[in-house]
Write a structure and sequence with these properties.
Elements (H helix, E strand, L loop, with lengths): L24 H12 L2 H8 L3 H15 L4 E2 L7 E2 L1 H36 L4 E8 L4 H7 L4 E8 L1 H9 L5 E6 L7 H7 L8 E15 L22 E2 L4 H13 L13 E2 L2 H9 L5 E5 H6 L3 E15 L6 H11 L1 H8 L4 E3 L5 E2 L1 H4 L10
Parallel strand pairs: 3-4, 3-5, 7-8
Antiparallel strand pairs: 1-2, 5-10, 6-9, 6-10, 6-11, 6-12
Helix pairs in contact: 1-2, 2-3, 4-9, 7-8
Length: about 375
């Protein structure tokens, strides 16, 4: 198979785009062939001529150096095994890249907003991955443009401290006894009097896995020594910190769980997609991601998702607009539609030392 490259591009259109789809003529064509089973019906579905679709198939077979369709006289045409693998792999990649594509599209919309509407407030947000945060963008569309970029909890707080964003998002469980894991990772990045904490929502974190659920599985302690293949979140993410905390509490070393330190994904939906595709058996994530992919869910703990800004930014128009949006009924209604989500003192300015667990934890001397 000869070498080929990937070229990305974007365009400006009169109509908007929903979600994070990337138009690609090859995969649009393969999907139509897979669904309709003939060039004639695929052409009708795509709004193209029979001749154009036939030529396109031949073109892509020449580019890829592989046949894409099995032609069966008088029967439904089928994609070749190579084409089926290609479609599966591309769907996996799209799922994995969805938050990054959304962030890129948000940045491009940011540029248009700045150029075309001086009345619009613009707020740059770096945040740990969450299924609810992108919905803020549609709720705030006319008054506030949120340029959202997903990263790890630690990197989001570093971006805030470096002046690379106006608001950061991170999450921690309400742990009355404190947590040395969370304290070591996040406490140095937040200072009372310098940072201002804003409430947003609470969400259910747990273990996602294919159904039927194994009997007796109720927590991470049950994974030690099991044959289940674990897919983790990346180092530095809030969910990885949560898993590390739970293992620490249970007295389990990461090496006792197959795949804990060797396989990771960057988002909840990427973990869920890997499990749904059979590439792994179990992994951490929010309940909403498990439900989206038809997976089983074993709840472990509820955690609070916070937003934070620098003290001097708290009363600026973009942050005030964000706080007002979070406090509105529309945000509560939006969260109610996501399994395992609920508002939690949304829009309120909170005390760091009361809301976060690590200021109640003292390291042993």
């Amino acid at each position: 198979m000869h070498e080929r490259g990937i070229h990305l591009q974007y365009g400006f259109e009169a109509h908007g785009q929903r979600g994070a789809e990337i138009e690609n003529p090859l995969f649009d064509l393969l999907a139509a062939m897979q669904q309709h089973g003939s060039i004639r019906h695929a052409a009708l579905a795509l709004g193209q001529s029979y001749r154009h679709v036939w030529g396109a198939l031949r073109h892509w077979e020449a580019v890829l150096g592989e046949p894409l369709v099995h032609w069966n006289q008088g029967k439904r045409s089928q994609l070749t095994p190579y084409a089926q693998r290609l479609v599966w792999a591309e769907r996996q990649a799209r799922t994995r890249m969805t938050p990054h594509i959304e962030a890129l599209r948000a940045e491009l919309l940011h540029v248009l907003a700045q150029a075309g509407d001086p009345r619009l407030q613009v707020l740059d947000m770096a945040a740990s991955h969450d299924l609810a945060l992108p919905l803020i963008q549609s709720l705030a569309a006319r008054s506030l443009h949120v340029a959202l970029r997903f990263t790890t909890s630690r990197d989001a707080l570093r971006a805030l401290n470096d002046g690379r964003c106006g608001v950061a998002g991170f999450h921690v469980p309400p742990l009355p006894g404190g947590s040395p894991v969370f304290a070591a990772a996040l406490k140095p990045l937040l200072q009372p009097g310098t940072h201002k904490l804003i409430g947003s929502h609470r969400r259910s974190q747990g273990l996602m896995l294919r159904k039927p659920l194994p009997e007796g599985l109720s927590g991470v302690a049950d994974l030690a020594g099991s044959t289940l293949r674990f897919v983790n979140r990346q180092a530095g993410s809030g969910t990885r910190l949560l898993m590390d905390h739970l293992l620490h509490e249970a007295g389990i070393v990461p090496g006792a769980i197959t795949g804990y330190d060797t396989r990771s994904e960057d988002t909840h939906v990427a973990v869920a997609a890997a499990i749904a595709a059979g590439a792994a058996d179990i992994g951490p994530g929010v309940e909403a991601a498990a439900r989206e992919f038809g997976l089983g869910f074993v709840p472990l703990i509820d955690e609070d998702y916070f937003l934070v800004c620098m003290k001097e930014q708290l009363d600026t128009p973009p942050v005030v607009a964000l706080r007002e949006l979070l406090a509105a009924q529309a945000w509560s209604d939006t969260l109610a539609a996501l399994p395992g989500y609920a508002p939690q003192r949304a829009g309120e300015v909170l005390s760091l030392t009361k809301a976060l667990p690590w200021w109640r934890f003292r390291s042993p001397r």
